[in-house]
From TrEMBL:
Its EC number is 2.7.2.4. PANTHER family: ASPARTATE KINASE, ASPARTOKINASE. Signal peptide: none annotated. It comes from Streptomyces spinoverrucosus. SUPFAM superfamilies: ACT-like, Carbamate kinase-like. Catalyzes the phosphorylation of the beta-carboxyl group of aspartic acid with ATP to yield 4-phospho-L-aspartate, which is involved in the branched biosynthetic pathway leading to the biosynthesis of amino acids lysine, threonine, isoleucine and methionine. Pfam families: AA_kinase, ACT_9. This is Aspartokinase. CDD domains: AAK_AKii-LysC-BS (cd04261), ACT_AK-LysC-DapG-like_2 (cd04923), ACT_AKii-LysC-BS-like_1 (cd04913). It catalyses: L-aspartate + ATP = 4-phospho-L-aspartate + ADP.
Amino acid sequence: MGLVVQKYGGSSVADAEGIKRVAKRIVEAKKNGHQVVAVVSAMGDTTDELIDLAEQVSPIPAGRELDMLLTAGERISMALLAMAIKNLGHSAQSFTGSQAGVITDSVHNKARIIDVTPGRIRDSLDEGNIAIVAGFQGVSQDTKDITTLGRGGSDTTAVALAAALDAEVCEIYTDVDGVFTADPRVVKKARKIDWISFEDMLELASSGSKVLLHRCVEYARRYNIPIHVRSSFSGLQGTWVSSEPIEQGEQQVEQAIISGVAHDTSEAKITVVGVPDKPGEAAAIFRTIADAEINIDMVVQNVSAASTGLTDISFTLPKTEGRKAMDALEKNKGGIGFDSLRYDDQIGKISLVGAGMKTNPGVTAAFFEALSGASVNIELISTSEIRISVVTRADDVPEAVRAVHTAFGLDSDSDEAVVYGGTGR
Ligand code: ASP
Ligand code: MG
């Protein structure tokens, strides 16, 4: 029996009852002979509430202090969880990210892990303890200041610790039974996926699926750590995310042609209208955006109307960066040369993901047919080897997701998708 890292999200430890339930689960794993490291998130919506509070005292809180504040959320849950485990007659010790050896760069609010030195965790485990670690936080190598890894970062903490401790598996406990073929909050007939490859999971994550963060899956792939996503509210098997298909009974789970449908309504679209159709224009636009440190997603350039010699360029980006991008472009209007800017935040993106589309003709056609059947108009299209994405009106997204899900035969016979907790905040 080896070492397991378990991660419990905010909705699993939302209140005292939740913490006691999780404590029992951890003790179960320990009784089964495992060494257990449990990574926890802040209770319920604590992180959002702390951010609200910070914004009440300062419209743009200092990054260093915001990190100091937010890491308190995870400290509360780790200490309570250790107490609850002791109350069950087992020994547990809690550790902050810094104590657990999570070393990061010095970028506040979205630090990257650069090393994990879990000496204290190892010692604690060897003494027979269950180790509880605060997720989402670390310490900067250069400044020694406390950092956070960005929203949802506890998953990354868990995978990073699993890699550093050479764990058998990283179990991510959440408020749904695993990774589904679509967001169960939108598609009632979404089906639980038994196994999915790192590659397909990465595409789903970058297309808006929120169950696992892109960075966490990337980390797991790099160190080849299998992730088991499952619910802390039920005893069911969840979804395995790994490089090779898992065995189930005698059979090997097969690679699906289509893994799932993801959607994202967190992006906005900027259209640069009246751009001269000559070399260097797109470069000037996207250099401006890059210099503002903004990541973009899709890009399209419309055909130039020959009579004017002008063209339009549209791109999508996170809504949260919208203001900054518009300001940066406006400031460089003279240098770039365009007529005007249009900003649209009522868009949504729907993506179909699956490695099988490489070898199965007709996937793109069937995707567009499903959208047309639901009378959904397509505004932008982008593809990768294993993904097709379209931008539509935000209002059309739920209908479009359901139509595509049905068209690709992904609907389950029963309503098996249960959402156990969380406010979806
Ligand atoms: N508590 C942090 C957040 O809500 C980190 C996490 O939940 O993973 O983003
Ligand atoms: Mg959270």
